[in-house]
Specification:
The chain has 154 residues and is α+β, with helices and mostly antiparallel strands. It is 14% helix and 23% strand. The protein has 3 helices and 8 strands; from the N terminus they run αααββββββββ. The strands form 2 sheets. Strands 1, 2, 3, 4, 7 and 8 form a 6-stranded antiparallel β-sheet that branches. A hairpin with a 7-residue loop joins strand 1 and strand 2. The longest helix has 11 residues. It is elongated.
Length: 154
């Protein structure tokens, strides 16, 4: 069973560390097999709005997207409107959607902590530079769907 510490803390009096909670629960209720700090895995993921989405001129499946991160990501090239360019191959990407963006320098959560950890860089895809990626549920290590990027509710 997986339990969120934030959920658990709603029912506790006092502020306990993860180690204290693990020890107390383990000695009184059930054995805890492991704990995982998700903040490390998702520290670079940012919710963005896809403002513009056009077909890539050199591809039959890629899109050139302009995304708005609210200006929170520093040291990344932006256009005159403050938007960031991302090339995306997902079939469900469209203007107006909210998505999860992993910026340049971020580790893809699916690979976090593995020997094949993937750290993103700015790279050209068919001649157009992409600053990070819009992520699928599988790339975010949420569930195994990789048919498109995750569409978040507004």
């Amino acid at each position: 069973m997986i339990i969120s510490v934030n959920w658990l803390k709603k029912y506790l009096k006092g502020d306990y560390s993860i180690d204290e909670l693990t020890e107390r629960i383990g000695s009184r209720l059930v054995e805890i097999e492991s704990t995982e700090c998700l903040s490390e895995k998702y520290q670079d993921a940012t919710v963005v709005k896809v403002v513009e989405c056009v077909e890539h001129p050199n591809s039959d499946h890629l899109h050139i997207c302009k995304i708005d991160d609210g200006g929170i990501t520093k040291d990344i090239p932006r256009d005159d409107n403050g938007l960031i360019q991302v090339v995306c191959g997902a079939p469900n990407v469209h203007a107006g959607m909210m998505a999860a963006w992993l910026p340049v320098g971020a580790v893809v959560p699916e690979t976090c902590g593995t020997e094949n950890e993937l750290r993103l860089s700015a790279r050209k895809l068919r001649g157009v530079i992409s600053y990070g990626m819009l992520a699928s549920p599988r790339e975010l290590a949420l569930w195994n769907e990789h048919e498109g990027i995750i569409e978040l509710p507004a």
